[in-house]
Amino acid sequence: MTTATPSRLLGAVSEGEALPPLCHEVTATTVVLGALASRDWRPMHHDRDFAIHRNGVRDIFLNTPSQASWMERYITDWSGPLGRLGRMKFSMKDSIFPGDTMVIDGHVLAVTAAVEGFGWVDLALAIRVGERLASSCQVRLALPVTDTDNPWLCPPESWRP
Amino acid sequence: MLETIPDSVLALIGQPQYREVSEIEVEAGYIYNSCAATRNGNPLFWDRAAADLLTGGPIAPPTMLSVWFRPHHWRPGATEEQKALQAHFDLKRLLELPEAIIADNEMVFGTPVRLGDRLQSWQVVRSISELKTTRLGRGRFWVVEVSMENQRGEFVGSDSYTAFGYTRTGQAAAR
pLDDT at position A4, please? Predict the structure, then answer.
């Protein structure tokens, strides 16, 4: 498989390996862009008064689908386009508000032996704001074994994330 | 807030509800919006040649699964705001818990979602907890799972939400 953007291969990944952190200054635009892109019209993601007076938080906050999209971007920045998500589990611990500096980091929990040209990598990720853990996330990602393998071409009956 | 869960609500657990076809086809505009919002430069979503080579044509980012099922905020004939995850809002109403947050979310990704797909989904209430008190207030946790397939009947994923429905207690929720 030849691509303009190289992908990480399974053999290049080891347990405990840290992924490079991603830092983003969250603004009201970050929150609203993410909400609109995910077709989430609920007011706590665009209406500050509603967030304060109905939800009891200090501002509008990043919605769940946006956080998932940020995680996906973070993972595939590391894996390249042949990295195929199999499963993602989030726990929201605290909200992410405009004015926060969001830092996504993570490490490899486990690497599973390859079958059919790909293997599974389990990742533990987090979104932090300063010392505060905002969200934790566990991800199962398929990576190719060789540069001729492609997890996206795995037949449905063999895809068991 | 109800102190006990009515039998009619317990009966919802495990029952498929709200089987529906998405209001929109999977389309490039929302994919670009999502990638732009998160500065996601994955060539699968920006470079047609890369998508043709690697995924047999354009696909949507897997984490956009829930996007295709959110209703329009308004449509002709609607008399009130349209809501996604109706089973969740049903539980808020039936259990008399006016506020809710999503605590956990788990997605499983199946066959890639492709441009032009028209997906369908159904919702299942998996569990409802006893009354709990958190810093937000007093209420119950529940799990609602949404399963999704494409127009060919292929599993494209599931999206499971753990929510906490609650009544606020003073200003304890502010943070």
Answer: 55
Give the model's pLDDT for residue B173: 35
Ranges of chain B whose pLDDT falls below 70: 170-175
| Cα B129 versus chain centre, distance | 20
Q: Which residue has the tokens 């994330």?
A: A161
Inter-chain CB proximity A92 and B105 less than 8 Å: yes
How many angstroms from the chain centroid is the CA of residue B108?
12
Provide the H-helix boundaries in A40-87: 48-53, 64-79
Mutate to test the interface with B, among A24, A26, A38 (most CBs of B within 10 A): A38
Min Cα distance A66 → chain B (Å) is 8
d(CA A116, CA B32) in angstroms, rounded, equals 32
Q: What is the C-alpha separation between B104 and B141, in angstroms, rounded? A: 10
B68-92 pLDDT, tens per residue?
998 888 889 887 777 778 999 999 9
Distance from CA of B32 to the nearest CA of A (A): 8
CB burial class (10 A; 0-12, 13-18, 19+) of residue A157? exposed
* Separation in Å, CA of B123 to nearest CA in chain A: 18
B-facing residues of A in 97-116 (CB < 8 A) are none
Question: Does residue B140 contact residue B78 with C-beta atoms inside 8 Å?
Answer: no
B107 vs A38, A55, A88: nearest CB: A88
